[in-house]
Design goal:
By secondary structure, the protein is of the alpha/beta class. It has helices spanning 14-25, 37-51, 66-79, 107-128, 161-183, 208-217, 224-227, 229-236, 239-242, 263-277, 283-290, and strands spanning 5-9, 29-34, 56-60, 85-88, 133-138, 188-194, 247-249, 252-254. The structure holds NADP nicotinamide-adenine-dinucleotide phosphate.
């Protein structure tokens, strides 16, 4: 991992922070993309204390804002020659009141799916500029509880926080599936994973039934260190650079649901995401443009 440039979203806490720290310890140059400056600085100091070098940078962006994602991507594009590993890790779950982002997207869909889609689109040529690019998106076994409806991706008809989360994690797998297809013939791969049920900050602010279940389950959950293992594996093992379009669990390829690997679903989700974000995301064209 020495001198590989790794961008990790949500790197100030939970498995994102552990991933950043462990990859930094392996010699990687880390870019932490976080929304809260103070939390990011604190995490950076913790990482610097143990990693043995000072290549740990912070870029600020709230992933619920396409404006901030675009500004962060522009900064990254101007300051770094390439991105070797892009880790779409940030994610959250909301309660049962449907909320929308400043762009008008249903919050969970916006932050957990549209944000990594947009960020990856804006940085894809920097990843393709790596000799061996690697795009990792953190999904979840929660995708098994999804009610995927291409005509109501933002759950305008019937909203439920848990379902919105499950749907967004399904979108992570569909996104990876389609991205991997579009990356064929390049030196970049894209995989996704379930990290385990982790005793992190995840879901802490959520009240109601889910909050109650999370509190009860906490003693049985795995540590953040254990939860980060599969992401770190994909970022640093040989298999992480040869596998493409796979879903990993416990550092091994696993089978997601059929809905999550359905070609039609993946292509339509991609097209709808392009429409919503008003972008055209064609990874291979980028490669061709580069020569
Ligand atoms: N915990 C689990 O049991 C579990 C299970 C399966 C999958 N996952 C997935 O694992 C990933 C990491 O979760 P975790 O357990 O490490 O949770 P965590 O400790 O809550 O970390 C989540 C990270 O995402 C960031 N984030 C959330 N919303 C953001 C936004 N709008 N803009 C920028 N950053 C934002 C958080 O920033 P702040 O600190 O500023 O809030 C934090 O850094 C998520 O994608 C989650 O879906 C978790």
């Amino acid at each position: 991992m020495k001198d590989k440039i790794c961008l990790i979203t949500g790197a100030n806490s939970g498995i994102g922070k552990v991933t950043a720290r462990e990859l930094a310890k392996k010699g990687a140059h880390i870019i932490m993309l976080c929304r809260n400056e103070q939390k990011a600085e604190n995490a950076r100091e913790d990482i610097l204390r143990v990693c043995g070098h000072d290549k740990v940078d912070i870029v600020l962006a709230d992933l619920s804002s396409t404006k901030q994602i675009k500004e962060a991507a522009a900064k990254i594009r101007s300051e770094y020659p390439r991105i070797d590993v892009l880790i779409n890790n940030a994610g959250m779950i909301m309660g049962n009141d449907r909320e929308t982002t400043e762009d008008g997207f249903e919050w969970t869909f916006g932050v957990n799916h549209l944000a990594p889609f947009l960020l990856t689109h804006l940085l894809i040529d920097k990843v393709l500029a790596s000799k061996k690019g690697n795009i990792i998106t953190v999904s979840s076994e929660a995708h098994r509880f999804a009610n995927f409806d291409l005509n109501d991706l933002q759950m305008q008809r019937k909203y439920n926080g848990l379902k919105a989360y499950a749907n967004s994690k399904l979108c992570n797998i569909l996104f990876t599936h389609e991205l991997a297809k579009r990356l064929k013939g390049t030196q970049t791969v894209s995989n996704t994973l379930h990290p385990g049920a982790i005793a992190s900050n995840f879901g802490k602010g959520v009240s109601g039934f889910f909050g109650f279940v999370m509190k009860l389950s906490r003693p049985f959950m795995i540590s953040e260190e254990k939860g980060a293992e599969t992401t770190i594996y994909l970022a640093s093992s040989e298999e992480g650079y040869t596998a493409n379009g796979l879903y990993f669990k416990n550092k091994k390829p696993a089978s997601p649901t059929k809905v999550a690997t359905n070609d039609y679903n993946a292509r339509r989700l991609w097209e709808v995401s392009e429409e919503l974000l008003q972008v055209k995301f064609s990874p291979v064209k980028h490669k061709a443009a580069e020569g």
